[in-house]
């Protein structure tokens, strides 16, 4: 009798999983799926990498896998490394990455369309194309010039991440010593100008005090384009609960980062121990960045345990618990990270997030919000705030 029950149960369980997969895929394909931060732009800019070329094993991102992963909108990171800041070529570098991204979009008009508003993202989905968006990462890219900030915005840059790993001359970062105790007066004028323009302020990478200063000042909702929850992993790149609550109050959205070194506290400890070896590889292969990356990846794959997908979902659920279901999204950081979670190892795997959220009992409406609707709401509100202010300044209502 027991044997009969057991043999009856197995197919039932399998059918349940299959039905859930069917539901997850249907939901995923119809939803707007937004990835707040992707770094494939470095390969596009430096190596002339064509997104249409399948690159499994080398990069996390290509067009076939974006299609497979049901990605509706992707933020291409206009990332400016600190070495360009040191050599006083930060704006030139940003322009090179903006140009490479525009050229990639122009090269694939049937797959990609440049979008600068929330409604354009919805239209892109309708037309069967992936919405391509630009987000500048590192406030140093504007070289202390609001004119440059405005010019970036006109070139289609929808958000500016105020810092990267280092402080800028006007904002402190989470991973470097404080130089300004948050935002300087010029930093505050950057925030005000972004509000006026209707440009999203991205607080990923900034220090807690900078984030707090932005929240004190911004009249529009803000975003964290690729940040997770510090209560679950004590990395400074993650956001503490008090600031998650304030982002909720501000109406913003926290787009959860997938990087195991940030989200899995076991990994950050091991990575710290590995740092001298990683540094030795960086020095040894200084003239060959690709070889350096490959050697470091090999070492990390040998020494670091794989983080399960469930850890990413735990971070999403923590943001929901503290900030609410209306304030969470996804910001993979793919192609900017050296290791990835299991079953979330490239852009084709986004449906696994949808499946896992449904499996944990989240409603279809909740999952749609997480996948993209929360971000779209924030984007539309920021545009609206910007337009309202511009009207005011030009003498309108
Ligand atoms: Zn980043």
Approximate helicity band: 40-55%
Low-confidence stretches: 1-8, 390-397
Query: Secondary-structure element order, as H and E?
Result: HEHHEHHEHEHEHEHEHEHHHHEHH
Oligomer state of the chains in this structure: single chain
Shape: globular
Category by helix and strand content: alpha/beta
In total, the number of strands is 9
Averaging pLDDT over every residue, what do you get?
93
The biggest beta sheet is recorded as: 6 strands, parallel
Strand content: 5-15%
User: What's the helix count?
Assistant: 16
Quote the distance from N terminus to C terminus. Answer: 78 Å
The radius of gyration over CA amounts to 21 Å
Bound compounds, each kind once, are: zinc ion
Quick overview of this protein structure:
The chain is an alpha/beta fold and 397 residues long. The protein is built from 16 helices and 9 strands. β3 (112-114), α6 and β4 form a beta-alpha-beta unit.
Describe the 3D structure:
The protein is α/β, with parallel strands linked by helices and 397 residues long. The chain is 53% helix and 10% strand. The protein contains 16 helices and nine strands. The strands form two sheets. Strands 1, 2, 3, 4, 5 and 6 form a six-stranded parallel sheet that branches. A three-stranded parallel sheet has the order 7-8-9. Strand 7 (223-224), helix 10 and strand 8 (253-256) form a beta-alpha-beta unit. Helix 12 packs antiparallel against helix 13. The chain is globular. 48% of the residues are buried. Mean pLDDT is 93; it is low at 1-8 and 390-397. Zinc ion is lined by residues 137, 204-205, 226, 336.
């Amino acid at each position: 009798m027991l044997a009969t029950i057991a043999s009856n149960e197995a197919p039932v369980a399998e059918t349940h999983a299959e039905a859930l997969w069917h539901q997850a895929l249907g939901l995923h394909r119809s939803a707007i799926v937004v990835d707040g931060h992707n770094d494939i732009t470095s390969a596009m800019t430096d190596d002339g990498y064509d997104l249409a070329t399948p690159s499994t094993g080398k990069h996390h991102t290509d067009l076939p896998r974006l299609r497979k992963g049901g990605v509706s909108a992707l933020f291409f990171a206009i990332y400016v490394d600190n070495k360009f800041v040191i050599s006083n070529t930060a704006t030139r570098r940003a322009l090179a990455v903006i140009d490479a991204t525009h050229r990639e979009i122009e090269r694939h008009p049937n797959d990609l369309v440049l979008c600068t508003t929330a409604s354009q993202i919805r239209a892109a989905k309708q037309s069967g194309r992936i919405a391509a968006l630009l987000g500048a990462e590192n406030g140093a890219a504007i070289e202390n010039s609001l004119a440059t900030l405005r010019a970036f915005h006109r070139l289609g840059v929808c958000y500016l991440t105020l810092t990267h790993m280092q402080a800028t001359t006007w904002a402190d970062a989470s991973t470097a010593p404080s130089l300004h105790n948050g935002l300087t007066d010029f930093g505050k004028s950057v925030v005000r100008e972004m509000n006026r323009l209707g440009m999203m302020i991205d607080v990923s990478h900034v220090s807690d005090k900078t984030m707090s200063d932005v929240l004190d000042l911004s009249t529009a909702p803000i975003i964290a384009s690729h940040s997770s929850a510090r209560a679950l992993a004590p990395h400074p790149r993650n956001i503490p609960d008090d600031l998650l609550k304030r982002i909720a109050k501000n109406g913003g959205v926290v787009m959860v980062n997938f990087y195991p070194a940030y989200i899995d506290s076991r990994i950050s400890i091991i990575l710290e121990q590995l740092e001298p070896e990683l540094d030795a590889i960086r020095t040894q292969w200084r003239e060959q960045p690709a070889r350096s990356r490959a050697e470091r990846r090999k070492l990390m794959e040998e020494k670091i345990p794989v983080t399960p997908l469930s850890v990413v979902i735990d971070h999403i659920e923590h943001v929901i618990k503290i900030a609410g279901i209306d304030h969470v999204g996804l910001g993979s950081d793919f192609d900017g990270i050296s290791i990835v979670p299991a079953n979330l190892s490239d852009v084709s795997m986004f449906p696994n997030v949808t499946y896992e959220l449904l499996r944990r009992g989240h409603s279809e409406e909740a999952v749609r919000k997480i996948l993209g609707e929360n971000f779209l709401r924030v984007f539309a509100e920021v545009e609206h705030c910007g337009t309202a202010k511009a009207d005011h300044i030009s003498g309108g209502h």
